[in-house]
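A.,

Following up on our hallway conversation. C-alpha cells first:
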C-alpha cells in the first residue's frame, strides 16, 4: 500500500502534531506500507522534524512567506502532489491539519485524482481554535474549508471529544478514534533525588496552554524546595506576559524558562521532574502526557485534554480548567511522598505500554486505510454515525 501524508509544516516550533506525523509515518513503514510525507517550507532557517529517510521519503515544497497574513503559500504544491501520486501509484492521501492553503490543495488533488482522502484535524475544530482568529477562519470556512471536508472518506480523531467537534461542524463521514502514539523510551527510573523538586511543563508558550493559570495557581501553593520549569518555544511573545505576572506575584525565584528541548535532552528533562502539568484550555490529545508517563512521571492535566484515564489508572489528576482546581491538584501532588509519586509513575508507564505505543497505533491506522480501500465491516475504532 502506498500512502502520502501531507502536513503544512514540520517546524519544531509548531508543536506535537509535526512529531506525531513523523513517528506515525515511520511506524506505518515498519508495518510494510510505502510512506511519503509532503510538507511546505519557507527559508532555510527552520528547524524541522524529519522522519527517518531509510523508512520514509520526505518531499519539501518551497513556500513563500506572506507575513501580513501569517502563513506560507506553497509554490507548485498541487503539481508536485499530482506528479508524486501518479508516479508512486498512491492508494491513500492523508491530510493533516486545517485552514492552510496546503490542506485545501491536498483535498482538491485527492478529488481530482479520485484517491481516497483520510483527514486528521489535530484539534483545529475545537471551540477554542474556532474562536482564535475567528474572522479568518470564518472566511476560509465559507470559501473552501467546508467543501473540502466533504471530500474526506474518513476522519481520524485522537479522542471522543474531537470526534464530537467534527460532528458538530456538520461532517457526516465515518470517524476513527485513534490516539496519538509515541516511541516509548527505554525504561529508566526518574532520577530527581535532590532539590529543587520540579513541576514541569513541556510545550509551546502560548495562551491556549493555560500557563497563566499555572503561574497563579503556583503562587497559591508554592512550597520550599520546589520549582516550576517551563520548557518550550515562545512562539508569540507570550513569555513576557507570563514573566510580568510572575514578578507581580513575587514568585520569580520559583520559575525557570529553558526554551525548547528535543531528543535525549527532552527525555532527561522528563526523568528529572517530579510532576508534569498540562493546564491547557484545549488539547485534541496532549502528546506530552504519554511521554511523561512513559518516564514514570505522574501528570496533572485539565479536562480540556482527553486524559480521564489518569484517574482510572491512578497515575495522575484530571481537573477542570482554572486556577483553583489546578492549585488543589498541585497541592496534592507536591504533598505526596516520593514513593507515592513513583508508584503513580509506574502505573502510568504500564498504561502507555498497553495503549499508546506507535506500533499499536499504526496498526489501527493501517486497518482504517485497508477498510477505506477494500470495504467490508469497519474496524472497531470507526464510528459510522
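Then the amino acids I'd put at each of the 385 positions:
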Amino acid at each position: 500500500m502506498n500512502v502520502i501524508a501531507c502536513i503544512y509544516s514540520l517546524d519544531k516550533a509548531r508543536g506535537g502534531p509535526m512529531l506525531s506525523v513523523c513517528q506515525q509515518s515511520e511506524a506505518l513503514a515498519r508495518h510494510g506500507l510505502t510512506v511519503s510525507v509532503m510538507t511546505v517550507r519557507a527559508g532555510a532557517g527552520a528547524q524541522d522534524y524529519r522522519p527517518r529517510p531509510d523508512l520514509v521519503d520526505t518531499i519539501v515544497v518551497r513556500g513563500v512567506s506572506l507575513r501580513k497574513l501569517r502563513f506560507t503559500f506553497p509554490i507548485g504544491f498541487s503539481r508536485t502532489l499530482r506528479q508524486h501520486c501518479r508516479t508512486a501509484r498512491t492508494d491513500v492521501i492523508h491530510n493533516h491539519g486545517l485552514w492552510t492553503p496546503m490542506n485545501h490543495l491536498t483535498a482538491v488533488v485527492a478529488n481530482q485524482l479520485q484517491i481516497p482522502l483520510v483527514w486528521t484535524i489535530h484539534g483545529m475544530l475545537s471551540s477554542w481554535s474556532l474562536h482564535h482568529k475567528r474572522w479568518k477562519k470564518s472566511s476560509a470556512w465559507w470559501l473552501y474549508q467546508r467543501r473540502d471536508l466533504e471530500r474526506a472518506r474518513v476522519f481520524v480523531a485522537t479522542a471522543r471529544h474531537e470526534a464530537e467537534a467534527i460532528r458538530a461542524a456538520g461532517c457526516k463521514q465515518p470517524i476513527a478514534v485513534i490516539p496519538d502514539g509515541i516511541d516509548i523510551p527505554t525504561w529508566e527510573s526518574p532520577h530527581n533525588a535532590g532539590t529543587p523538586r520540579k513541576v514541569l511543563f513541556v510545550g509551546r508558550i502560548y495562551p491556549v496552554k493555560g500557563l497563566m493559570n499555572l503561574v497563579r495557581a503556583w503562587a497559591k501553593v508554592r512550597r520550599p524546595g520546589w520549582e516550576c520549569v517551563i520548557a518550550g518555544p515562545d512562539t508569540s511573545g507570550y513569555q513576557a506576559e507570563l514573566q510580568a505576572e510572575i514578578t507581580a506575584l513575587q514568585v520569580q525565584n520559583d520559575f525557570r524558562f529553558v526554551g525548547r528541548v528535543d531528543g535525549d535532552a527532552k527525555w532527561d528533562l522528563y526523568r528529572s521532574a517530579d510532576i508534569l502539568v498540562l493546564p491547557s484550555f484545549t488539547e485534541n490529545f496532549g502528546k506530552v502526557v504519554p511521554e511523561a508517563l512513559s518516564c514514570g512521571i505522574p501528570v496533572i492535566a485539565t479536562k480540556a485534554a482527553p486524559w480521564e484515564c489518569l484517574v482510572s489508572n491512578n497515575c495522575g489528576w484530571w481537573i477542570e480548567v482554572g486556577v483553583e482546581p489546578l492549585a488543589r491538584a498541585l497541592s496534592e501532588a507536591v504533598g505526596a511522598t516520593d514513593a507515592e509519586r513513583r508508584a503513580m509513575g509506574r502505573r502510568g508507564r504500564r498504561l502507555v505500554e498497553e495503549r499508546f505505543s506507535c506500533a499499536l497505533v499504526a496498526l489501527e491506522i493501517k486497518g482504517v486505510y485497508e477498510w477505506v480501500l477494500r470495504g467490508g465491516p469497519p474496524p472497531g475504532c470507526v464510528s459510522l454515525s
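The domain at 197-355 is CATH 3.40.50.2000 (Rossmann fold). Curious whether your intuition agrees with the design.

B.
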